[in-house]
Write a structure and sequence with these properties.
alpha/beta; 6-stranded antiparallel sheet; 15 helices; globular; binds calcium ion
Length: 661
């Protein structure tokens, strides 16, 4: 061993030994939080630095002056591995509770239980509920719809409040979990809305923007139009958000109504993906984590300040054993107690790869058909070594976890950060390789020149399930708004063609497809590019706009059905993609390829897919013989719109074509 290496190892060991956090005992039991029975409730909290922990019981959920609603305050007992316990006798159901830690040097703030499964209004106090009883009728019989392989997924990204809050939604419980359980909801003019509408689209998964308890929306006055938030400001990770419940004060109502929503989704053939934000907490020093064990759950810079890879003021430390345990147990809680079918990890690049793979292995054991994916980037630098981060470029090192492809997203429409930038569908030259790269779901393919891809110049996906293909999501301008800015000189009819072409590319490419709710009716946020706290009239799904764009919606439905009916569009392995998908030599602005349907298990033996992003009709040379035209740029008919015989097919300007035989 070289002297310098030895020195480095000794120095590292010394530095690690100096950080007392790394010597904290790790509690490995499964009973953190409160365990309720009618006879007694048992509490266990981890706080290895505490000199004492006080547990307070309250009648009400919101802190009052002089604690007039205090039922009892007890000192917890020191127990094994840094934990503190207390058994409260009697039936405590309905009571609220908090912890308060005192260390040698400080009395920390009173906070709810990190492991609270139920909380009162605005998440200030945890609540003891009979968790198993907090369920709708027949909850025990709830079953997730069948889902065979990851590349079958077509994800639809939805915000609970956006879905039903529009005045014309016809939904009674607007903006609520149970608003998405209502049947046969319609606009005044008779257009189907709400869950019925979503289920009719034919997507397989609905991804719900944060629905754990988050901070910003005042749950007591949730329908103040100024009080809107996406929910990327987490407070209580294991309790449902209260502004979506009909009674935010009652933790059992929050739990029951969320379960009711999931049960309805499952009945309608939709699996539910939860958007989870373990990468940062709403508050730093004031966070519940920090008030129980200072500096443990967050990364801290060399200067002793919170590091900020999230861009939200702090970042969590997934590599620390008790944070890793918290994440895993939280995820298992949602799978086991809410039948959640998948997770979308916000800023997953902040989490270390080892933790993500550990989580993936454990969750796949519990639910083999679970779907896991996330944002393979950070929003700032992190003290975590770059090669440990769950970044897109390391997707091939992630075990059964996908990442969003910004290569496809911005290849199609241009950079989300540069308003005027264009992409393949909107007229930018040289984007063909990015589209081809998306078509093969980011895996290596002999026809694709990876060095010409817009961002990542290497094949980050090993298998197609590593790649989530999309063109818009809740972040940044909607595609429709982006086109209005980047292509202001084009007519609305032309922009509609671009919009349709972009989404057709997403839904015919290999990998996993992802749609932002309302994209199918040209969703607009009136030009707002970051609507995280914008009022409802920017964010809501506008059902009147939907009714006006029925032709576009029908096109999406047929395209989704086409993908679901034809396995050639969603091959399960990279090997199958390399063997069965070949690109044709085409002119600039055009991408075309053949699919060997026979080998991909498709009822069509051979298919040709053409994307013409030029503003002219383009002749595409074809192999000899007779073809059925399945998609002619505007119409989709699986039986064939008409037959075509010839060696040259003229693809209309700005259109996608599918031929089959
Ligand atoms: Ca909340």
């Amino acid at each position: 061993m070289k002297k310098a290496t030895l020195f480095f190892i000794l120095l590292t060991a010394k530095l690690m030994a100096q950080n007392p956090i790394d010597s904290y005992p790790v509690y490995d039991g499964a009973d953190l939080g409160c365990t309720y029975t009618a006879q007694s409730t048992f509490f266990r909290v981890w706080s290895p630095i505490a000199k004492s922990v006080q547990l307070r019981f309250y009648k009400t959920d919101l802190p009052k002056e002089r604690d007039v609603d205090l039922i009892e305050m007890v000192e917890m007992q020191a127990a094994e591995k840094g934990t503190w316990t207390f058994r409260a006798v009697g039936n405590r159901v309905g009571q609220y509770y908090t912890y308060q830690v005192k260390t040698d040097s400080a009395t920390l703030k009173e906070v709810p239980d990190l492991y609270a499964k139920a909380v009162g209004a605005n998440g200030r106090r945890a609540q003891i509920i009979d968790f198993q009883q907090a369920a709708p009728p027949k909850w025990a019989d709830d079953q997730s719809p069948v889902f065979k392989q990851k590349t079958d997924a077509i994800i639809y990204e939805l915000h609970v409040r956006d879905a039903t809050i529009h005045p014309a939604s016809g939904v009674k419980n607007k903006g609520k979990f149970i608003g998405l359980t209502e049947k046969k909801t319609k606009t005044p003019s008779g257009f189907t809305t709400g869950l019925d509408y979503i289920a009719d689209l034919g997507v397989t998964h609905v991804q719900i923007l944060p629905m754990y308890d988050y901070f910003t929306v005042d749950e007591i006055a949730p329908f103040d139009p100024k009080s809107y938030n996406w929910g990327y400001d987490p407070l209580n990770y294991n309790a449902p958000e209260g502004n979506y419940a009909t009674n935010p004060h009652d933790g059992a109502v929050r739990v029951t109504e969320l379960r009711q929503m999931i049960q309805r989704f499952h009945k309608k053939g939709l699996r539910v993906v939860m958007d989870v934000v373990y990468n940062h907490t709403m508050f730093g020093a004031e966070s519940y984590f920090h008030q129980l064990v200072p500096n443990y759950y967050h990364r801290v810079s060399e200067k002793g300040q919170f590091s900020n890879a999230s861009g939200c003021g702090n970042e969590t430390a997934s590599e620390r054993p008790m944070m890793r345990k918290f994440m895993l147990e939280s995820l298992i809680h949602w799978v086991e107690n809410y039948h959640i079918d998948g997770f979308r990890f916000d800023l997953m690049g902040i989490h270390d790869i080892e933790t993500m793979n550990y989580i993936s292995e454990a969750l796949h054991k519990i639910k083999p058909d679970i779907l896991l994916y996330g944002e393979g980037w950070t929003a700032g630098d992190s003290p975590l070594a770059e090669n440990r981060r769950s970044l897109k470029k390391y997707a091939h090192r992630l075990d059964k976890i996908g990442v969003f492809s910004d290569d496809m997203r911005d290849g199609l429409k241009g950079s989300v950060f540069e308003k005027l930038d264009k992409g393949f569908v909107s007229g930018k030259a040289g984007m063909e390789a990015s589209i081809q790269f998306g078509v093969v779901a980011g895996v290596s393919h002999p026809n694709v020149e990876v060095s010409k891809v817009v961002y990542t110049k290497e094949n980050w996906a090993a298998e197609p399930h590593h790649c989530i293909n999309y063109v818009e999501c809740h972040d940044n301008h909607t595609l429709w708004d982006k086109l209005a800015i980047s292509n202001a000189n084009d007519s609305e009819a032309t922009r509609q063609k671009m919009h349709r072409l972009a989404n057709t590319i997403v839904l015919t490419s290999q990998g996993i497809s992802f749609l932002h709710a309302g994209s199918e009716f040209l969703r607009t946020k009136q030009g707002e590019e970051n609507s995280y706290k914008s009022p409802d009239d920017i964010n809501y799904l506008d059902w009147e706009r939907a009714a006006k764009n029925k032709i576009s919606i029908d096109y999406f439905k047929k395209l989704i059905a086409l993908r679901r009916n034809h396995p050639a569009f969603r091959m399960p392995t990279a090997t199958a993609i390399r063997e069965n998908l070949q690109f044709l030599k085409t002119e600039a602005g055009i991408v075309a390829y053949t699919l060997n349907g026979a080998k991909a298990g498709d009822k069509w033996k051979e298919m040709i897919v053409i994307y013409n992003a030029t503003q002219q009709s383009a002749p595409i040379p074809l192999p000899e013989g007779k073809w059925k035209v399945i998609l002619d740029g505007e119409r989709i008919m699986e039986k064939g719109i008409h037959d075509f015989k010839g060696t040259r097919y003229y693809a209309p300007a700005l259109s996608a074509i599918i031929l089959a035989r």
